[in-house]
TrEMBL record:
UniProt-recorded name of the protein: Uncharacterized protein
Domain of life: Eukaryota
UniProt keyword list: Heme, Iron, Membrane, Metal-binding, Oxidoreductase, Transmembrane, Transmembrane helix
Pfam family for this entry, one: p450
Coiled coil region boundaries: none
Organism from which the protein derives: Penicillium vulpinum
GO BP, sorted A to Z: mycotoxin biosynthetic process
InterPro entries with a match to the protein in the record: Cyt_P450, Cyt_P450_E_grp-IV, Cyt_P450_sf, Cytochrome_P450_monoxygenase
SUPFAM superfamilies: Cytochrome P450
GO molecular function: heme binding; iron ion binding; monooxygenase activity; oxidoreductase activity, acting on paired donors, with incorporation or reduction of molecular oxygen
Keyword Metal-binding among UniProt keywords: yes
Membrane-crossing segments per the record: 6-27
Length: 506
């Protein structure tokens, strides 16, 4: 009697959660017939140290290169991940069909939605037009002043040289923390009119900068990233409660800093340059009632995040790549030193006219696209992607830049090799190729078409100036003890990269 009873009661207890899980994880019939990436791959980070590159090789490359798209479990639902360039072009061109729908639409209750809200990157339609109308002029100045970029880059190089001296010439130094401080300070000075001064200070000294490391680690926790429905239970999960608190702290700190700055500026009259800043434009729109306080806060936060973290990751990747290829450093240094003799403080025009520098940065973005994968668009109506792949209304679709950039069918058999020469010889030729590949959907570090990055020009200049200053002062190798490990999810970059710097003789 006892055994059947135990079996029955176990069944009765387990059945409801099993039924719920089956319903929750099932693949909707409306999704197209494509290979499916096993769901456990999305939470692999919980038990495996594999980086994004290894995960991609093991599970994604073959089906994506064969079918051009796969079904993947992302942020709590099955979505279509695309890598075929002509399908991507269709998606990027037709924003009225494949509309931006970020976490504020998909998972409005989630921690990530609390962080980013509704902003210029993830909004669609009216709101996007409103935000772009306000912010675009501050993001896309015709000529960016290089004085502040040169100053910040020199400061970073000095900090790294001092760090190396402190630790001795045999051991590697971790670059990531100071690169983040540099990126945050550059963003503050150029977009928000904030002098954050985090570079050169101990870790944690400038709280709003220190919060960035906590935010990144919190967002990309695999379990919550893949199952954001767990964010419904902060009362049950203390780590979720902490996550919400962190997001609110960042929000309030940034708001307070910007309001203080705007108040100070309004008191003093001599601010002609700072008026071109995104923060002033948003401040004016807020005080005149064109946007709400929430929209003001959300767009400040996204500017803070996007204008520092992508450059930070790209520079970390640059330290790794050039630290393993002294030949590239040498060739680049030759070009830079020849220019710095006549232009010790180069303008935007001088920097953008250096061919090898341009090619190296384009190639870095090809092999290390910081925004590697995004699934933040939804089909507003039934559609046929590229005229071939049926997409039902309500389906979430996205892209993977590494998949496109590393596909031999797109970039040739040497697609995974760093070969700056592939971009051509003259700057004009490189710009032409950059434009063509972007339009064709074969080069998408900044996305393409209507919703492509508005900070692209600035970001390229910022990284080129850092290289200009860095290669003029030091050479470096990757610490022989360091083994390349890419980040497990989210933004793509080498994790914990250590380098040994040597100061050049002057
Ligand atoms: C290496 C640096 C950067 C990379 C790789 C990068 C990449 C991207 C990508 C991939 C997108 C498209 C996102 C999507 O499809 O949802 C994007 C959009 C955007 N980026 Fe960047 N970005 C960089 C730097 C910057 C900087 C410095 C800013 C300045 C604030 C900026 C501002 C924006 C804005 C405003 C958009 C939204 C454009 C729109 O939807 O109309 N980005 N970026």
């Amino acid at each position: 009697m006892a055994l059947p009873f135990i079996l029955l009661s176990t069944l009765v207890t387990l059945l409801p959660p099993l039924l719920f899980l089956t319903w929750y994880l099932h693949v909707p019939r409306t999704l197209p017939n494509l290979p499916r990436i096993p769901i456990y791959v999305s939470i692999l980070g919980l038990w495996s140290p594999m980086g994004q590159d290894e995960i991609y090789e093991r599970w994604f490359r073959t089906p994506l290169e064969k079918h051009g798209a796969v079904l993947v479990w992302f942020a709590g639902r099955w979505s279509v991940l695309v890598s075929r360039p002509d399908w991507l072009t269709d998606m990027f061109r037709n924003e009225q069909i494949y509309a931006k729908a970020g976490s504020q639409i998909k998972i409005p209750h989630a921690v990530i939605a609390t962080l980013v809200g509704d902003n210029i990157i993830n909004a669609h339609g009216e709101n996007w037009r409103l935000y772009t109308g306000i912010m675009k002029a501050g993001l896309q100045k015709k000529v960016f002043e290089t004085t502040s970029l040169l100053k910040q880059s020199r400061k970073l190089v000095n900090v790294l040289i001092d760090l190396q001296k402190e630790i001795g010439s045999k051991e590697g130094i971790l670059v990531m923390a100071d690169v983040q401080k540099w990126a945050v300070d550059v963003m503050g000075e150029n977009f928000l009119d904030l002098d954050l001064k985090s570079l050169g200070q101990p870790d944690g000294a400038v709280r709003i900068e220190a919060l960035q490391s906590i935010i990144k680690a919190t967002l990309f926790e695999p379990m919550y990233f893949s199952f954001p429905d767990l964010d419904h239970f902060p009362w049950l999960l203390p780590s979720r409660k902490r996550a919400y608190n962190i997001m609110h702290e960042f929000d309030d700190r940034l708001y307070a800093k910007i309001m203080t700055m705007l108040h100070k500026r309004s008191e003093s009259k001599d601010t002609p340059q700072s008026e071109e800043m995104v923060s002033h434009m948003l401040g004016e729109a807020y005080t005149s009632g064109r946007i709400t306080e929430k929209q003001f806060r959300d767009n400040l936060k996204i500017t803070f995040l996007t204008a520092h973290e992508n450059a930070q990751q790209l520079v970390t990747s640059m330290f790794w790549q050039l630290g393993t290829r002294i030949d590239i450093q040498d060739r680049l240094r030759e070009e830079i030193l020849a220019t710095s003799k006549t232009h010790p403080n180069p303008s935007q025009e001088v920097i953008n006219n250096l061919p090898y520098l341009t090619a190296v940065v384009l190639e870095l973005l090809r092999l290390f696209p910081p925004v590697c994968q995004l699934i933040n668009r939804v089909a507003l109506q039934p559609a046929m992607l590229g005229g071939e792949l049926p997409i039902a209304k309500g389906t979430f679709v996205g892209w993977n830049a590494w998949a496109v950039h590393s596909n031999p069918a797109v970039w040739g058999e040497d697609a995974r090799e760093f070969r700056a020469e592939r971009w051509g010889e003259s700057v004009e030729e490189m710009q032409g190729r950059f434009r063509r590949e972007t339009v064709r959907g074969t080069y998408i570090p900044f996305n393409a078409h209507k919703r492509k990055c508005l900070g692209q020009g600035f970001a390229l200049l910022q990284v080129k100036i850092l290289l200009f200053v860095l290669l003029g002062r030091v050479s470096w190798i990757v610490d022989p003890e360091y083994r390349l490990k890419m980040t497990p999810g989210g933004i793509l970059a080498p994790l914990g990269c250590r380098v040994i710097l040597t100061e050049l003789e002057s």
